[in-house]
Amino acid sequence: MGDECEWMKLPIDQKCEHKVWKARLNGYEEAAKLFQKIQDEKSPEWSKYLGLIKKFVTESNAVAQLKGLEAALVYIENAHVAGRTTGEVTSGVVNKVFNQPKARAKELGVEICLMYIEIEKAEPVQEELLKGLDNKNPKIVVACIETIRKALGEFGSKIVQLKPIVKALPKLFESREKAVRDEAKLLAVEVYKWIRDALRPPLQNINSLQLKELEEEWVKLPTTAPRQTRFLRSQQDLKTKFEQHQAAGDDEEGDEEAEVPVVDAYDLLEPVEILLKLPKDFYEKIEAKKWQERKEALEALEVLVKNPKIEPGDYADLVRALKKVIGKDSNVLLVALGAKCLAGLASGLRKKFQSYATHVVPTLLEKFKEKKPQVVQALQEAIDAVFLSTTLQNLSEDVLAVMENKNPSIKQQASLFLARSFRCCTPSMLPKSLLKPLCAALLKQINDSAAEVRDSAFEALGTALRVVGERLMNPFLVDVDKLKLDKIKECSDKVELILGNKSAGTSKVAKPGPQGKVVPSSSSGDKVDAPATKSGPSKKPTKPGGQPKKGKGPGPASGPGGKGKKATEIREVEPELSIEVCEERAATVLPASCLQQLDSSNWKERLASMEEFQKGVEVTDKRALPCQALVRMLAKKPGWKETNFQVMQMKLYIVALVAQKGNFSRTSAEVVLDGLVDKTGDIKCGVKAKEALTAIAEACSLPWTAEQVVAMAFAQKNPKNQAEALNWLATSIKECGFAGLNVKAFISNVKIALAATNPAVRTSAITLLGVMYLYMGAPLRMFFEDEKPALLSQIDAEFEKMQGQTPPAPIRKLAKRDADEEEAPEEPDEEENGHAQDLLPRTDISDKITSELVEKLGDKNWKIRKEGLDELSTILNEAKLIQPNIGELPGVLKGRLNDSNKILVQQTLTILQQMATAMGPNVKQHVKILGIPIITVFGDSKSNVRAAALTTLNSWVEKTGMKEWLDGEDLSEELKKENPFLRQELLGWLAEKLPTLRSTPPDLILCLPHVYACLEDRNGDVRKKAQDALPTFMMHLGYEKMVRAAAKLKSTSKDQVVAALEKAQAIVPAKPAASAKTSSKSNAARPPSTAAMRAHSATINDDTDAPALKNDPKKNKATGPTAKVKPGIGKKVLSKPNLKDDEDKSGPIFIIIPNAKEQRVKDERTLKVLKWNFTTPRDEYTEQLKTQMSSCVAKWVQDEMFHPDFHHHIKALTALLEHLESETEGVVGCLDLILKWLTLRFFDTNTTVLMKVLEYLKLIFTVLSKEDYHLTDNEASSFIPYLINKVGEPKDLIRKDVRSIMNMMCKVYPASKMFNFIMEGLKSKNSKQRAECLEELGALIEVYDLNVCQPTPAKALKEIASQIGDRDTSVRNAALNTVVTVYNICGDQVFKLIGNLSEKELSMLEERIKRSAKKPSVVSTKQVEEKTSRTQGLNPNAAVPRKGCEEVPTKLNQARSNNSHSTSESAPMIPREFQLDLDEIENDNNTGGCELPDLVQHKLDELYEPVSIPEPKNRSVSPHFDEIHGSTDSTINFVVSQVASGDINTSIQALAQIDEVLRQEDKADTMSGHIDQFLIATFMQLRLIYNTHMADEKLNKAEILKLYSCIIGNMITLFHVEPLAKEASMGVLKDLMHGLILLMLDSRLDDLDEGPQLIRSVNLLMVKVLEKSDPTNILSSLIVLLQDSLLATTNNTPKFSELVMKCLWRMIRLLPSIVNIINVDRILLDIHNFMRIFPRERLKQMKCDLPTRTQKTLLHTLCKLLGPKIMDHLVLIENKNESELEAYLRRVTKHSMALSGGKIDSETEKGGSTIEDKESKAKISETLAEIFKKIGSKENTREGLAELYEYRKKYSDADIEPFLRKSSQFFQNYIERGLRLVENEREGKGRISSSSSSAGFSSPPDESPYVASSTSIPSAGSTNGEEVGPAVYLERLKILRQRCGLENNSKLEERQPATSLLSKPTVPTVASSSELLHNKLAHLRDSREYNQEQESHHPPVQSNSNATSAANLDDLKKRLERIKSSRK
Length: 2024
Prior knowledge:
It is a single chain. The protein is mainly α. It is built from 108 helices and no strands. Helix 48 (862-879) packs parallel to helix 50.
């Protein structure tokens, strides 16, 4: 027992390792419970058990093992670190659990394996299970097979890799154990479900009986494809879809999946080596003279190539032999046989055949001249198989070459080959650069004389049209006549695409062998398979052609594309209009006088006409602007021959305006271009002419405009015009970019210009060439090599100037260019690289590569070989630029690279360099045959040969790029060779090249085993190079993949390699930035995302990305720049490795390490690391920070943060912004590192980065203040000094932001310590910094008093005063202002504190003090706001809620913020009407002075601190005044402040006191004026509970529940008192609803016993809030809250938004009853703001359509209730075009009017006249309407009130509530008082003085007469939800009357609201409970005066409200004056 007691006390983790099995058993049980309790998957508690989980599983005691397995399962399911244990735990399960006799243990083991797969660890689990198949214990083997089967059945073949499973199956079928064979059979059946017939070939060799049994089982399987039923953590969206489909019983999705095989049979097959199996005399026989011997050789080969998968190798000789047979054999049977062998070889090798493809295709195409069907068919099969091994891009040159052939059969078959090839392509495989030449060749053939050639061309064009869509094809089909175009479209309709949606239904499942042909001319099914299985299911091929931008849903294949193109064509070309039509259309825009004076002889009239013309264009809408008509009017006589330069300038300006504003077509441009070009050389009008040309270029595309302008300029022969046209073109290229320009057309004109006699023309031409050189580079010079030497030297000088410069990013948007880029998003880089090269003429040298030359190059004599190389070098030198077709040259040159003579090897390398230069990018076709052998030369022992090989290799890579070299196994095969020279050279080259790449092919991973082998190489240089290369490999492959690859090594090697990987991880280079073009695109794409981020954080950033936005505003599509910047992003879902890379970015960016921050502080204190203190950051600081961040910041974020390019810094900041609120804990944990990194960014010169940094800082300090976090001294000292340095920035915007951040920092760091840092800033040499620091010091002193001054006020002030003598004016003024601030606090004592000043300085100070004394003591609103925001810094728990500091200040927000400040310090500073007079009267009792400001000394705030009740002040006050002013106001303020206390008991006591007040009807009204304050304190307490108390495990949850109950009970009581409920303002209601919804969604409440009951109470409370609050305020707050939740600014779940919408629906249901009392203008303004931020397109993109439906329902209901009059309520919206609200309302109104007519009024009347009397409802309604009309008119008010009183008395059950509801609150109060007066007069209970009567009951002068219809009377002053009327002043008047000894009628005090007085007595309402709540309103109404003054600064919306309030104010003022005079 002693031992047991001993282990019982141990912690859980120690129990789990205890030697006593019972202790372990107990530990496992407790651990399981603990794991279930931990809610946070990232809790540090998980890490404690990381090393123990394996022991849980491998427990030796069977009983304890079960519990251990259960605990392990819970751990794996919930812990975020569980993935690290996958390998060891799965291995333990396989070896120690699967062999257990207990079934439960086995079940748990299987479940653990499946859970690991669910948490994204499928690969290591599968690896361990496959290892288990080799175990000697059959139990383990059976369990492993069963687990694999279950995993495959549940997760599917995309997660579980089938290839290793299929490979293991034959061996399992051979097992001796029947149980193993049976389980293997079940596994084979499961595998068959997923891949169908692809499983047959691998199992062909198993026992025939077993195969038969399998066949029988396979036949029984359903034909539908299986579905994944269990999903990974990253596949929750798929899980949701699956559950929805299951619920709906929908199997369509499954059917679609069944049509495309997941696994290609080819991948499951083992490759067969055929080269070694060839007959030894094969090559002799294949060249034998007897055709029978050649046939024998081919038949032997045919048998070998029938193997579906062939081992890769060197097939060059075999291919060459087959090529010779096909091309030159005279026996056509052998030609067909050779073609079949070639087809089989290409099909078996697939992509490995790519290097041979370009050599055989020309021969195959040429051989199509044979007409025998069997030969043609064999050739077709061969060329189709070859095509599948390469790309159409690589074969296009060969195909285009034969398209010009004279033989019609060759042309026909080439076209048919293209048609078949197109069918296998997707739109992305057919870029515009490829389609253009192919379409041009095919268009020639549709006019061919041979019918079969024409038909095949039509088929090819139709197929291309079907694949890419009309949008891409139409530009190539412009000149085709209608009949032929129809034929092309007809062919297009007949086409069935192999990779398209339509063919998906008919395409067959992949099978291993050849299948039937899809069309007669197509190849085998195997050919069809390859792309199908590679690409997987794809969308309709036309969709990428027609972007979904304008598409309106799915349509025909060419639908969207066609529409898009049609629109473009309309803009580009339009029919020419006659002059009569032009005049008619222009008359719709221009006044008649303008058109008449256009051709006036008086220039002044023409000028006036132009001015009218300009105005007409400016005011006309874009769509209504008839551009062609207007420019033709401008061209009317005198047109462009205008003699007056002023008129001409106006004319040119108008042309530019029309081009910019309208849909300007090329037809319109042709009207004006000639005239514009003629004016470019004009001194006065040239500038305007060029501006007009630029505008036209923007509208009609620069390439077209430039071509026209240059052609016209050189046709005019005017040298000035020519020079200026060239200058304009040079400027436009820089502004608009080079894309699409027809350089060939310019070069001829440039050559003319260079030969011109006028020097200006020559200079302009050379300048233009310099600009073109920026984009084209050195090849441009080749066009001008034949120019004169003097001119050539000038051109060279211009080129030298441009050397090293990068082309500027385009700053103008070109509509045409953008469209092109949208069409071909992946094209630009390729075009950009090869653009200049494509323009140059290339020579075909294939005819010069004769057989004699080839023989020479292969001769045995080295001298003859050298002769051949010399000849070849000469051919290349003469040709300069060559075509890629070089015949048999690659094969023989490859042999020369292995030459025994090293001189010849070097010469060959030199020739290969020449070839790369001459061939350009096309050299990539020869990489596999010639490029890889260059790498082999690295293995030469001579260093000079290796150096030559390296130079040659780099010259090739420069032309081809790295992708071709890294693709495939060739590189890994070279690295595999154990040659130390080769390895070190190759690894060094890779280490140099890999960091320059942004992405690499997946085949790079094949090099890893060999790189690891190099790490252990004997040669030290190889080891060194391998270590250097590791970080570059890791940069692309990632650490995890490389560690996984190392796991397959031997244990001794593995440890060494993993250690090297860990070292390499710390120095992984960042990926490079995009190229200039790409980066400009990515910049252009960035503004939408940053804008979204701004919306997310509710902050404003002043145009930081404006330049980027100008570049290209259309670039926010995923198909545009994002596809460019991240290649293959659209395919990431299909490939698993890419999915994982994507997950890395989607996960958290901060890794929480306990106590890491404290350790860093400790290290800095003990000088283990550098202290963060520098003037400019050195490299060691950056490296230190990078190292510290490596352990706690995500790798990809770190790469962006420390990248040399500023664009990556912006990306890093964007990522930090996105994760700020979601990872607050992580931000706090890494705050010191984040702030240090931000200080580094302060030293950057890029303004965009700096603005982004400041934006982030504002947000982070807002979040920190909300979290009540306080900066540590270490964090402050490493950040604040650098922040203060930025306050001296020259840009005002930056200084303003820095000051704002310094202001916010006072909330998270003591102001006194801030003061010290700012004082240090005074030592700066920057005068602006000193001035700003002084201003900040003054602000701190003003807010925090002199106590803030450190070290003492005297020392601080002496330093401040010393700045008065500064030379800089701004510094002097700031110092003087700061000292004056001190003077205002402590008076003359300031002179002692500041010490001795010079006379001059002292006089300046005294003068400033005098001037400041003259100013009134009124503090501006801005200062008040600033001071209030600072005082919040004093106490972070102030009653005013902290919003985002940069929240957009709308009019309503401003009004709200003013109201919220009204009860704080600002109140006594604002002068109020009658305040002084009132105080004199009230203090007239001589019983002691009562100073109102003293009442505000209770600071409201210290909310989170328990406060003891202070002793009452010792002063004598009159009884009434003390009761109302003293105790009530200050006590309520004090008690309310305690509601938000951090102490639960204090808060509960305060809530109990308030609840007592609210429950007593006679006291409840004392809370009036404090409602907002109370609600703010309440939801702050809710936030405190949610964030702090609930997370604190030490706190008793029962106390928290008690506090929750008190809060909810209080608010339910409050919202039962309707007048008080209506006082809640919009902003407060928004925050309250936000807090309540969060409370309802708090999952932690579910764990509490009373949690569900609490949630029901909250639900009840929310209903009360919705029903009883001011309807305008609550509706407005819900709309804004919905907006915020959808923007994700509050980090809400979708459930949150759903609850907000449910609240909105409830309010919508209430709308019919409240529509006449809500402020519709405000509601529509909020809806407008919502629709502006969430336009229809954005709402459609959301997963859920509820927001759209909610918005529509709200607007429909309002339209239904208000009818057309709703359009009158849009007055608050300044710019109605910003949203679709107005247009939507018009549509709905029009529709509803058509349907319902005038039903609304009748229904309203019907609803408003409910009476239980015999009198008809219509008559009652008329009677009441007449009465209310009388009350509303000034003359008949008393009569109307009397009639209403009589009517009410006669019909006691009459319900007049609907009539009252339509009127304003003031009008209701007016009726209420009038009825009470009539009642008093009738019953004789007293009189009210005439003055009071007139003041209280006179009809409001501007109140509209009441009409009993749907028209409502506007509510006075209801803009902020509070009605301020004469009642406020009447209450104060009562107090004054009491002071003066006058009578106060007791009845007047007990006023009821009109609703309670007039409603049916039989139906009790909430309003009746407030009958006695008006006893003590006097002082509490004072606060409303301040609100009223605020409203005078921000007047209410309705005009009549102002007038009413003003009139009442004047009336009351007179009454108070009379009282005062009577006193005197």
